Amino acid sequence: MKTFRENLSGYIFMLLALSSISALALITVFIIVQGAPLIADVGVIDFIFGMTWAPSQGEYGIFPMIIGSLSVTLGAVILGVPVGICCAIFLAEFAPVKLRNLFRPAIQLLAGIPSVVYGFWGLIFIVPFIRDYLGGPGLSILAASVILAIMILPTVISISEVSILALPRQYKEGALALGMTHWQTIFYVILPAAKSGIVAAIILGIGRAIGETMAVIMVVGNATAIPTSILDPVRTLTTNIGIEMGYASGEHRQALFATGIVLFIIIMVLNSLAQYITRKK
Questions:
Q1: pTM of the full predicted structure?
Q2: What are the structural domains, with CATH classification, of the chain?
């Protein structure tokens, strides 16, 4: 009887796990079925590297939006990753226990704030600041990068801190015993040893940034053109889908699903790369 219950529990958990995988598989198949015909008709090269997005004229080129997504994500990484890693070092190596217990829930709270709240805050504070002091319309790559940099902080900080705390104490004790200072130990021993976890945190943060929609729609400007400055408005892959899916039909709707395929592949590659780096180390 006991064996039967254990086997039954195992089957139930297996079914639950398969249901999650099945949901992912159904979403993947649905996106591919809806978007692949348009890519086949337009051509992969023309779709990905096309410069004009004009659904009413039958032109479906998403290259400006790919550049927009990459530029916004790169800006978020440049602004957010150094801050996130420094915060992780502070929490793991310097913060007193009481302060650490205060900071960790606050960082986790950042991950729970709805993205529309970030977008609204950026629209009220960041956009006018950029317009008044840096120039341009305010709705720009820089505004979206600042918002996304804040949004990826919980991912970068949490995973980086865990990677640092997971290191054997002998690494730090041995370095200090050899005469290295605390800062030298951090930069020459701890960070290199935790490199795989930190890199995985950065890649997951990039995936979080490149997949964000609502906050970016509100502050990025949504112009389908290749930018020449960080103060220029752009449109990302996610914002293109979010803006136009409500009224799209026919080939236009298929083109948006095709855009989703490209975005899906990018995010899957990033997540797979993070898993590979983590397992390799």
A1: 0.88
A2: 67-235 (1.10.3720.10)
